[in-house]
Design a protein that fits this description.
The chain has 332 residues and is of the alpha/beta class. 44% of the residues lie in helices and 16% in strands. The protein folds into two domains: 161 residues, 3-Layer(aba) Sandwich (Isopropylmalate Dehydrogenase), CATH 3.40.718; 151 residues, Isopropylmalate Dehydrogenase. Strand 8, helix 7 and strand 9 form a beta-alpha-beta unit. Belongs to the PlsX family.
């Protein structure tokens, strides 16, 4: 049985949203055990007694890493926090993957310093799956913030890891790889991006060239490689714009008179289809690639629905033996 260690105290809606998601996904993943780490009394109060079985367990912890805590200091000082105890379960082989909605920096530090890097990986990279308007209807972008400073060889390795993930987990043959840059031409960007462009162009990946920010969601590329700073800005921009557009559309259709409301009813199916297409929650969480077990981060404001999809994503990563294959591919 696969086991997912879940930080039940991380995020704005913890532990209720996390428990609700676990209870919803549990019957769909009969071969997966989920262990919730956190305040046992609070968690247990949300779970019907009959649901606590071989597939669902609670490990009591007494501390929580807050969003404002300094990441490395927090994982060293809060040894009995839900996140750190969960990470140690993974390190000790008691669990196969770690999921948290908590402090991003602390989760990355837990992945790197507790669970550990795969030998041969220079710097792990954080990679979400985001919606796109055409082709496969989604794309991966790496790194989106695990590394504030980047080197050309790091970005090249992130492109390779992203490609490997797209092939194994998303089932894409020969994924198209692009480099996020401020222009399409090969000589665009600073020295770092020009160097990365040459490495990608000379390598064995299906490199299609540079991609600009306005093309990210068009489906032009399956994997987008970028430095951590630019990737984080791009990710927050996409998440923010998607939320603003969907809410603005809803307000416009429901608050502008009877005829507008009638028109909205006529196109309800198309609106729902568009909303689902650009709903970032359906694409799961961001995966820290390059560590010895799947470490997945879901947005701190996530509700049960987003956590539900992320649990299914983690289970699929485990089913595909991604980490074992990563070690064979990169751990040389």
């Amino acid at each position: 049985m696969r086991t997912i260690a879940i930080d039940a105290m991380g995020g704005e809606n913890a532990p209720k949203a996390i428990v609700d998601a676990v209870l919803k996904v549990k019957p769909e993943l009969p071969e997966t055990k989920m262990v919730l780490f956190g305040d046992e009394a609070k968690i247990k109060a949300l779970i019907p007694a009959e649901q606590l079985d071989d597939q669902l367990a609670i490990v009591n912890t007494t501390e929580v890493i807050a969003d404002e805590d300094e990441p490395v200091k927090a994982i060293r000082s809060k040894k009995d926090s839900s996140m750190v105890v969960a990470a140690n379960y993974v390190k000790q082989g008691k669990a196969d993957a770690l999921l948290s909605l908590g402090n991003t920096g602390a989760l990355l530090a837990s992945g790197i310093f507790i669970i550990g890097r795969i030998k041969g990986i220079a710097r792990p990279g954080l990679m979400p799956t985001l919606p796109a308007s055409s082709y496969n209807n989604e794309f991966n972008i790496i790194d989106v913030g695990a590394n504030a400073k980047s080197k050309a060889e790091y970005i090249l390795q992130w492109a390779k890891m992203g490609t490997f993930y797209a092939e194994k987990v998303r089932g894409i043959k020969n994924p198209r790889v692009a480099l996020l840059n401020n222009g399409a031409e090969s000589d665009k960007g600073d020295d770092l991006h020009q160097e990365v462009y040459q490495l990608l162009a000379e390598g064995s990946l299906n490199f299609i060239g540079n991609i600009e920010g306005n093309e990210l969601m068009t489906g032009k590329a399956d994997v987008v490689a970028t430095d951590g700073f630019s990737g984080n800005v791009a990710l927050k921009s996409i998440e923010g714009m998607s939320s603003v557009l969907l809410h603005s559309l809803k307000d416009s259709l429901l608050n502008n008179g009877l005829f507008t409301k009638l028109g909205a009813l006529m196109i309800k199916g198309g609106i729902n289809e568009m909303r689902q297409k650009y709903d970032t929650a359906r694409h799961g969480g961001a995966v820290l690639l390059g560590v010895n077990a799947p470490v997945v981060k879901t947005h701190g404001r996530s509700g049960a629905r987003a956590i539900y999809y992320t649990l299914k994503q983690v289970d699929k990563i485990l089913k595909e033996n991604l980490i074992s294959d990563f070690k064979n591919e990169f751990g040389k």
